[in-house]
Amino acid sequence: MAHAYTPGLRVAQYAVLRRERKLPLAGEVHVRPGDTVSAEQVVASTELPGQVTIVNAAQRLGCTPEEVPELMLKQEGDAVEAGELLAESKGLWGLFRSTCEAPITGTVESISDVTGQVALRGPALPVELRAYLDGTVVEVLPEEGVIVEAQVSLLQGIFGIGGETYGVLELRADGPEEELTARQVDEACAGKVIAGGSCVTLDALRAAVEVGAAGVVAGGIDYNDLEAFLGYPLGVAITGHEDVGLSLVITEGFGRVPMAQGTFDLLKSLAGRRTSMNGQTQIRAGVIRPEVIVARSGPAPEEAVRAAEIGLEEGSRVRLIREPYFGRLAQVAELPEALTEIETEARVRVLIARLDNGDLVTVPRANVELVEE
Fold it and tell me: Which run of H or of E encompasses 211?
């Protein structure tokens, strides 16, 4: 039963990862199985159909919908430029003609003699799919994408914003309790992933955007600062599509929370290395965790190669993910077998956890996640 209640939060010095990289539509794959790829390398590409713009040609020409096809100067499939004539009325004795111009550059998609409308399709939008990991292509998905495998150090966070980004990891704190402030962000951070300690301030985030940093990793953030940085309240939907100029990964939770010592030590050991990161987060069903990934070379320790998922046991390191202990780290002290009634009057499996300050608390097993260190 333990496995059913232990979604893993990994902070691993060695791990073997596979990432499936798929296009949103069928396209062209540019690599083959066995190819070595870099994180920024384009491995597949496609084109998304352009946006459709509807033009009411009958209204502009002052004619009936049935007359529109015979007044068209452009036909279905023809390319048009913005401002170019699409259709022209016959006028009166060849005078007083009405015209209909294309509002966009694109292609004539359809001409309707029922509605009198002309649909124009804008230019296709190119989509390039990058490898995301420095690794090896282990499988090609024809016209869809690839699966990339890499030996890495992996750090998963509890919350993040922003999508995939890349840069050299730069540690800007001397310890896990030191805040990341604007004073620690300078021009040397351009294009880099900046790692702090306990908390990243609003001024530091804005400074990181200004100098062109690729991403920020910190232990915590004040929710009001996050809201001010985004410019709007953050809802419960999936994150990762925010256009804020960088990606952010929070490892511990909201507030001025010190980064876990093991997490800080791992970041410190990886400073100066090429890093991939993704702030995309989904907390509800189908959990997606923000992550920081650094490729490693050389053979992995035997225990790191596709190790089986670890279940809860006494002594396991866990993070509590519900109030009133949200974000707190603890150690499993006891795993009672019997179902226990909680405040909601539901009967669930619980565990007794010892917080870092020594206090013992009883929480549902569903309210914890296993920390792999």
Answer: helix 202-211
Residue 136 scores a pLDDT above 60 = yes
Tell me the pLDDT tens digit for each residue of 275-327: 999 999 987 666 788 999 998 876 656 555 444 344 668 888 887 877 788 76
Q: Which residues contact 232 (CB under 8 A, 6 or more apart)?
A: none
Can you give the pLDDT at residue 167? 96
Chain Cα centroid distance, residue 33: 26
Where is average pLDDT lowest: 9-18, 71-80, 189-198? 9-18
Domains of the chain: 52-121 (2.40.50), 158-289 (3.50.30), 317-372 (2.30.30)
Please give the Cα distance from 231 to 56 (Å, whole number): 37
**Cis upstream peptide for 324 (omega within 30°):** yes
Name residues whose C-beta falls within 8 Å of residue 5's C-beta, 6 or more positions apart in sequence.
Answer: 312, 349, 364, 365, 366, 368
Return the C-alpha torsion angle 296, 156, 146, 132, nearest 10: -60
